[in-house]
Design goal:
CATH architecture of the largest domain: Orthogonal Bundle
Structural class: alpha+beta
Largest sheet: 5 strands, antiparallel
Number of domains: 2
Strand order of the largest sheet: 1-2-3-5-4
Number of strands: 10
CATH topology of the largest domain: Transferase(Phosphotransferase), domain 1
Radius of gyration: 18 Å
Helix content: 40-55%
Mean pLDDT: 84
C-alpha cells in the first residue's frame, strides 16, 4: 500500500477539510478522522491544535505498529508527516462502536455478552503481558463486528497508551497541556481514585462497560439512541 499516494489524494483536494468540501471519496467520521471506505486516515490538524497533539499521534503509531500481531488491533499501514500534520493510515473496520450499535447489533451483543466479556478480559491479559496500559478504554473505542455469526472485537485509539515503565515522551512546550489532558483520560469509565498509570484502570473500565451492558434493557437502549440523535 502506497501511503504517500493515499495521503496525497487526501490533502490535495481540500487542505482545509471543510464539511462542505471533503477530499474526493472521503467522509468525516469524527473530528480529524476520515475514511474512504477502504482505509481510515487520522491526522493532527496543526492549524487547529497548534501541534499539541503531535506527541499523542506519534505515540499511537508506535503502539499500533508494535501490536500488529494481535487480531484485536486494527491493521496499521503507516504514517507520514506533511506541513506539520501527522497522518496515520489504518484499516477501516467494518463494524460499530459500542456507543453506535444498531438494534440488530445490540441484540447480538446481549446474546453474546459472556463471550464479549471474555474477549475483553483476554485483551487486558494481552496488554498486561506486553506491560502496556491503554488508559482510555471506553465504549467508542471498542468496535464490534459479526464475522460468520461470531462476535469479534477490536480496540482503537492508542494515543494515551503507555508502557508501565514510562509515561508519554511529551515535549516541554506541550507538557502543561498534557497534564490537563490526563485529568480527563478515560472520562466516566475511569476511577479517579486509581492511579492513571495502573493496570487497574483498564480493568475498571472493562468491568464498568460490561456491567452497564448487562443492566441495559431495550427501553434504556432506545432512550440512549434518541439522546444520541438529539446531540
Amino acid at each position: 500500500m502506497n501511503i504517500s499516494k493515499i495521503v496525497e489524494l487526501f490533502i490535495n483536494v481540500d487542505r482545509t477539510i471543510s464539511k462542505s468540501k471533503l477530499p474526493n471519496g472521503f467522509r468525516q467520521l469524527k473530528k480529524e478522522i476520515f475514511s474512504d471506505g477502504k482505509v481510515v486516515i487520522k491526522f493532527t490538524n496543526y492549524k487547529r491544535n497548534k501541534g499539541i497533539d503531535d506527541y499523542a499521534y506519534l505515540n499511537e503509531a508506535i503502539w499500533l505498529d508494535r501490536l500488529q500481531k494481535f487480531e484485536f488491533v486494527p491493521k496499521f499501514y503507516g504514517q507520514e508527516k506533511r506541513d506539520n500534520n501527522i497522518y496515520l493510515v489504518m484499516e477501516n473496520i467494518k463494524g460499530s462502536s459500542l456507543e453506535n450499535l444498531s438494534f440488530k447489533e445490540w441484540f447480538f451483543l446481549k446474546k453474546n455478552i459472556n463471550i464479549f466479556e471474555n474477549i475483553l478480559k483476554d485483551i487486558l491479559q494481552a496488554f498486561k503481558k506486553e506491560k502496556l496500559i491503554h488508559r482510555d478504554i471506553r465504549p467508542h473505542n471498542i468496535i464490534l463486528f459479526n464475522q460468520e455469526n461470531k462476535l469479534k472485537v477490536k480496540i482503537i485509539d492508542f494515543q494515551y497508551m503507555i508502557s508501565v515503565y514510562e509515561d508519554l515522551n511529551v515535549p516541554k512546550k506541550s507538557l502543561e497541556h498534557y497534564q490537563k489532558v490526563k485529568e480527563n483520560i478515560g472520562d466516566i469509565w475511569r476511577n479517579k481514585e486509581i492511579e492513571l498509570n495502573s493496570f487497574e484502570n483498564d480493568e475498571f473500565a472493562v468491568n464498568k462497560i460490561v456491567e452497564d451492558i448487562k443492566k441495559e434493557n431495550i427501553i434504556k437502549f432506545i432512550i440512549k439512541k434518541i439522546k444520541g440523535y438529539l446531540k
